[in-house]
Amino acid sequence: MDQISRLSLIERIQQSFQVNRIVCLLGPRQCGKTTLARLLWKMNDKTLKDPGYFDLERPQDIESLNNPDLALSSLKGLIVIDEIQRRPDLFSYLRYLHDQHLDQQFLILGSASASLIHQSSESLAGRISFIEITPFSAKEVNEWRMLLIKGGFPRSYLLSTNPSMEWRQNYMRTYIEQDLGTFGLNFQPDLLRRFWFMLAHYHGQILNASTLAQSLGVSQPTIVRYLSYLKDTFMLRILKPWFANTLKRQVKSPKVYYRDSGLLHYVLGVKEFHHLIEHPRAGASFEGFCIEEIIKYHKVDAEDCYFWASHNKAELDLLIVKDGKKHGFEFKLSDAPKLTPSMRFALEDLELDSLKVIYPGDRNYALTKDVQVESLSSYLNLP
Description:
Layout (H helix, E strand, L loop, with lengths): L6 H11 L4 E5 L6 H11 L9 E3 L3 H6 L3 H5 L4 E6 L7 H11 L3 E7 L7 H6 L4 E5 L5 H4 L3 H6 L3 H5 L2 H19 L9 H11 L5 E2 L2 H8 L3 H13 L3 E6 L13 E4 L2 H8 L4 H5 L4 H17 L6 E5 L5 E8 L2 E7 L9 H10 L3 E6 L5 E2 L4 E5 H4 L4
Parallel strand pairs: 1-4, 1-5, 2-3, 3-4, 7-9, 11-12, 12-14
Antiparallel strand pairs: 6-8, 7-8, 9-10, 10-11, 13-14
Helix pairs in contact: 12-13
């Protein structure tokens, strides 16, 4: 982790403290939240021995916060609480501290989405800023091919090939067997593991919950619930369909993607870039990776991201709605993408302000005055 600078995230956290005195970092386990918190703690001239840093995976800190008034009320300045989802009862007390102690700032860290840690939005409405911390982005590591293969979790990315694969294997097992249990969710570990592994082969496809339920021998509501668990803990992206004002019959079901390409490639058994190129899921892998990178690059919320597809095979991989404009993206794992009827339909039916075709090459060129082919490195301003 020390080899990759994430100072832009530190700056974002500091800016959020200017808006609210409680800032919550949300993201998957081991994506770098704790490292950021400790760096910010150090920048405040504190050491981990100083009071005010609580890690709810440490028994002594858990015990200390059993009496939150005694542990927190006398502290000043920055206070850090890591793995807050283990003690959702603290949120109501944080509201009290926020309103009574104007000399306190709280940085709280959680491994689930705000919708899963719903107590925070209820208890701290108007008092808290949320920041989603993702694994490494291509912009942070200044390359994308190794990131595509290994994924962005810091340990996975920084380890060599075989240890990286072993780390991802252990991560997936620990996530199912231990981490999910901290949220009090209702699931069967063996079933969820089979479901998550099965989804690797549905990566980039239209979601059909009925088919998945039949394959696993469970009810459709169970599939929907498990999808929600994986989405709310940042493992999956469920990309919503966009409905255009068109006579075409449009696809109404969402698409599903692994958010981290490294975890996807562990399940698929892909260790190297040349192995991926030969794999039947290569195009879908590149598409999902690019979707994550483009969303990170543009700093847009999931609610502003869509795909579009009609039943006559016209489609658009990603539609971002930002500042009143509609930006379309197609992702092609090919040497020289060409103009397709689908691109023309997307331009016309969606009234796009721009359409970019992103590919792994090194030359940018125009297909029409409205459709530009651009290399992924160029689009992300990588060296």
